[in-house]
Amino acid sequence: MLDANDLNVFPVDAWIQDGVAWIALNLRPLFLAIKWPVEYVLNLNIFLLQEIPFLAIVAVSVLLAWRLASLGVACFSAVALIAIAALGVWSEAMTTLSLITTAIVICAAVGIPIGIGCARSDRMWGVVRPILDIMQTTPTFVYLVPVVMLFGVGTVPGEVAVVTAAAPPLIRFTNLGIRMVETEMVEAGLAFGATRRQLLWEVQLPLAVPTILGGLNQTVLTAMVMSVVVAMIGAEGLGLVVLQGLGRLDVGRAAVGGIAIVLLAMMLDRITQKLAQPGGPGGRPLLRSLRALVRSSRPATSKPAISSPDQ
Amino acid sequence: MTERLRVENLYKVFSKSPDPALRMLAAGAKKADVLAKTGMVVGLNDVSLSVPSGAIYMVMGLSGSGKSTLARCINRLNEPSAGRILLDGRDIVAAGEAELRDIRRKRISMVFQHFALLPNRTVAENTEFGLKLQGVSPQARRRRAEEVLSIVGLARWGNHYPHELSGGMRQRVGLARALATDADVLIMDEAFSALDPLIRTEMQDELLRLQRTLKKTILFITHDFQEALKLGTRIAIMADGELVREGTPQQIVLEPGSDYVAAFTREVDRSRLFDARWAMTPVQPVPLAAGLCLAETGDGGGLVLDDGGHVVGALDADTLRGLRDTTGLGNSGLGTGGLSALRKDFVTVRECDSLLDAARAHRAGRPMAVVDEDGRLTGTLAADRILAGIASAPSHPAGGLHA
């Protein structure tokens, strides 16, 4: 009888081991180059979020939630943040939040341009798409192995894993958003003599913004999940609280970490979800919300006043 | 009228390598043959036409006839497979990328069926879209936007968003956007088809009103033959990618030329389309008396004209016969007694009045005089001629029957 184990003749594990060791040894400059900006942005974020006083962070979060989403979300954010502080994991929560905000910054800086490239070139999309498929079907847990081998352990390698896991939805949604812009809109642009660049900036990107923000919401949630998982490779934050609780069979500690994670995740989800929906409070699309945020002296419900030069 | 736009032997095959299909078409194959043999869809098959400057040129056809393909080839949203499109003598098909962009920015603008307004921009921002692409300064383009918005009757709507406007108003914005660039050629691709009937009629009237002052060269695509008749100075009818009939609305209704075209013209309201000049019987006045002429109306009676050709009265058949019997015509027989027999109850219509107006003016037993702009008699119009003109094409379009 043939036994399944009899087929195990190829030392695949050894090959991969050797391969990764070779890559780690010879491509070290490449990984350092990838690690450097991640480390820089992450440290900046950690510094900011840890140094800004508790009340200031609550105030800013509530204001953001109110202007970008709604009053309800703003109230929830206030309650959630105060609860996290009351649970005694404020510092850890801020570390987790820095992992997430860093992921947003880096994913947006890298993912959106890649998404735009994919939307404009079928060939590029043909190459990127299978990679995204693999990245998104791979369990987040599995990311940790190559990351540890190539980047080591700690918070910064953890951030690399977070970014890697969180980027695919944003790339996908950016590509989708641009491709979904109605042909008549694109033709209107062309018919009035738009260059390719003008077409992108004047027509395609503005109309793709809601979809791209939907992708951003997915990215935030994936980053949230991943920021907990990377505790296993030594990243700090709320994940570490849970992991320590488990390690010491301290159910209370683990639960505190878990509750804080849920509160933080819900808050981030509510705020970013509202971004993608056209019309937050007073039926204002995102860009106008952002504009209103800048000139916050105006009442929230004011119409976008684009005054004519003659008046 | 000078020629603004000329299309010469234009072909469009939807394929990356259209050569086999083009060879088949050149050898006389039809759209269906090419599809069966090569699997390629033919959009345009040897279309040639000439659009005079200042005309509203209607391209009419059912869906799949290639009418939109033709329009979109003009500004090369669709790339023609073969042929030439001459704008003031310059071939658009041969234009390079930069030249094409310049043509699209300055010479040809377009109005879309579903408006294609950017939802994230205000009406004014949409209107100045073309100018923004050209790099016109914000102040200058806003001024221009306000100008054209007031032309289309939306002066106070500049700061609103398209979703706050009704369909008709949105298409006015679409029109304003097309007018803002000052292009002299306007492509209107089924521009009013998405509007409900009342608004559509209103927009058609509006377009005719605007065109009187703007004098653009308009290529208007439509599937509605009534719309083509109403707006068009000339109409081209397309079927299966080919041009099957081209001419003025009256020519096409009179001589459809094929069953396909006749199917559209059958339901046409001729009483509005044709004018009195077209159905009238021309007159040949003969001298009657000093300073007076007689124009026979065909029923035995006649109209009496003065030196200037103006109608002074009518003679019924009996009076005229009496005059002929006693004195003979031309021999100053119409004395004082005869003049008193002149009837003043004749009806006058102008040459440019529609047959519908002529029918309304008609009174039984009273002769109808057709006069030109200066009031001079050019013809007479009998009831049977009016009816024949409304019902179908008379066998003798001019002269004939009663002459």
Automatic annotation (TrEMBL), chain A:
Main localisation: membrane
UniProtKB keywords: Cell membrane, Membrane, Transmembrane, Transmembrane helix, Transport
Keyword Manganese applies: no
Spans traversing the lipid bilayer: 40-64, 71-91, 97-119, 140-167, 220-243, 250-268
Membrane topology annotation: Multi-pass membrane protein
PROSITE patterns: ABC_TM1
Domain ABC transmembrane type-1 span(s) in chain numbering: 93-272
SUPFAM superfamilies attached to this UniProt entry: MetI-like
Protein name: ABC transporter permease subunit
Organism: Azospirillum melinis
Source lineage: Bacteria, Pseudomonadati, Pseudomonadota, Alphaproteobacteria, Rhodospirillales
Automatic annotation (TrEMBL), chain B:
E.C. number: 7.6.2.9
Membrane topology: Peripheral membrane protein
UniProt xrefs under InterPro entries: AAA+_ATPase, ABC_osmolyte_uptake_ATP-bind, ABC_transporter-like_ATP-bd, ABC_transporter-like_CS, CBS_dom_sf, Gly-betaine_transp_ATP-bd, P-loop_NTPase
Keyword terms: ATP-binding, Cell inner membrane, Cell membrane, Membrane, Nucleotide-binding, Transport
Enzymatic reactions: a quaternary ammonium(out) + ATP + H2O = a quaternary ammonium(in) + ADP + phosphate + H(+)
Location of the protein in the cell: Cell inner membrane
ABC transporter domain sequence ranges: 5-265
SMART domains in the record: AAA
Principal localisation: membrane
Residue spans crossing the bilayer: none
The keyword Transferase appears for this protein: no
Transport recorded as keyword: yes
Any Pfam family the entry gives: ABC_tran
Molecular function in Gene Ontology: ATP binding
Oligomeric form and interacting partners: The complex is probably composed of two ATP-binding proteins, two transmembrane proteins and a solute-binding protein.
Family: Belongs to the ABC transporter superfamily.
The protein's name: Quaternary amine transport ATP-binding protein
Source organism: Azospirillum melinis
